[in-house]
Task: structure prediction
Amino acid sequence: MVSTLLDRIGEWNPQLFRELKGRLKPRNLGLAAGISLLGQLLVFLFYQAQLPALYEETHRLCIGNPPPDWKGYVGGANPPNNFCLRDAAKVILPDSLNWQLWWLDLFTGLSIIAIFALLVGGVYLLIADLSNEERRGTFGFIRLSPRSTFSVLSGKILGVPALLYVFVGLMLPLNFYAAIAAKVSLPLVFGFYGILAAACIFFYSASLLYGLVSAGLGSFQAWLGSGLVLGFLWAMTLFFLSQGNSPSYTPLDWVLPFSPTNALNYVVSTAPHSLDKIGYGNVKNFAQLTWFDWRIFDRAATAYSFMFANFALWTYWAWQGLQRRYPNPNATVFSKSNSYWLSGSLIVATMGFALQQREWGEYERHLFDNFGVLLIFVLVLCLGLMAALSPQRPTLYDWARYRHQNPQYRRSLLKDLVWGEKSPATVAIALNLALMSILLFLGILLLPFKEFRLPALFGVLLTASMVLIYATIAQKVLMMKAQKRGIWATAVVGSAIVLPLICSLFLRLEPTRSFWLLSAFPTWAAEQATATTIFLTLLGQWTAITLANLQMSKQLRHAGESQTKVLLQDKTSNYVLN
Result:
């Protein structure tokens, strides 16, 4: 039966058949099933151990009332409703235990284990498998096959973590039974399962793209990728378990919908207990989130819809990169046309969380600080676009030679710089910055910034100028003849960002000093700087940008002419010899 099923899978997706055939062996299946069942037993025993001990009179899981002569009464205080009633043998009466709350704890614990197993374990397995395929050279043969990118990579997503699916699948019966016994909303439980599946698709797609881009890291790339996911989920789980945590009311809240643990908030809230009694998963805090002042997260239906849409959007962008990078390892991760839509997507998604209001402080000040955080997002995105859009040195030189040999194309130089696949990325970075700056300008002009409006506008201009300087530096480093130019570009740009911060810390300069106008985070310095200082800073930045790009254009033109002369000399020599 299994072989017949695998044969049918092989007809539908040969890559999935290849992955499953190598993994779904009786020994592996037995180990996965044994570990899953043993793990469930240990989790069950762990929560059994959380029941009241012999010496405890009150406990979170008890629901009894103490007798009238109980010594715990103080000054006529109201009796506790979490008293543990016992029989003559000191055994707790079953009716005095809150079994629904106990089953809720078990359901939550199993759900969190499933999240970590699927996301952290799956990301590690996919990146490690990709690294092994690249090292053995088998991935090159897979690329030569006529199968589509979607067929091959979806086969890996479904097949590589197959044993993890078995591990988690065997947990589902106990998990679902615990949800029924806890009397939580079953439609929301199914919604949580769906969000977990959507999260797996997104994280697995992103991990494949990361594995294709960072192939030079070797075995370390799997540990790095899964470690980042582990750190993110650990922070999100602490946020879920800590009842007092609340959103930051900043653009940083954009990361919250990426964690399936936040979908558990709504499931937990349907249990027949007060949130104070439960002690975790406080949906009231998560429900305070707003996006463009829309209270999306105060209802489970709209919150789940937003999370599904969020995963769908960023999964789409991950697959845009996969569709380009898988067939051609030397291609840029994104096309320049796609990068403009990607920038717009990110700035709109994060700006929605920047408009949130806090219950304390001035809203105008909070808006200004939030837009400063938004500009940090812009910086990080543009640093990523530098790596995603910059072609390799041979490609750049081929482009320069091609344009030099074909003068008729000079009239379309601007078009080539904006849309071309092989041209330098500096103009595309500038256009992405212009697009994001326009959206930020609209927000600054329409929102009640009051006295912070002008510093916010200056902050956008200064940040855009610094990003263009970093992009120019990165492009010049990528044109060097040195080995591992990508690592060199990362190191140089990273130093340009970090060193001013280190110097300011040693000099004990406050963020409002003019020195910070030349850093990667000039927004708060623009609040205190004079208009003359800001104007001179912008003038100096744009002078440096112009001169550096003119010199880079001259270098490319000279390289194209040199390559053309070499080719012409070779052709002439061959003609004379013949």
Residues 56-96 form one domain.
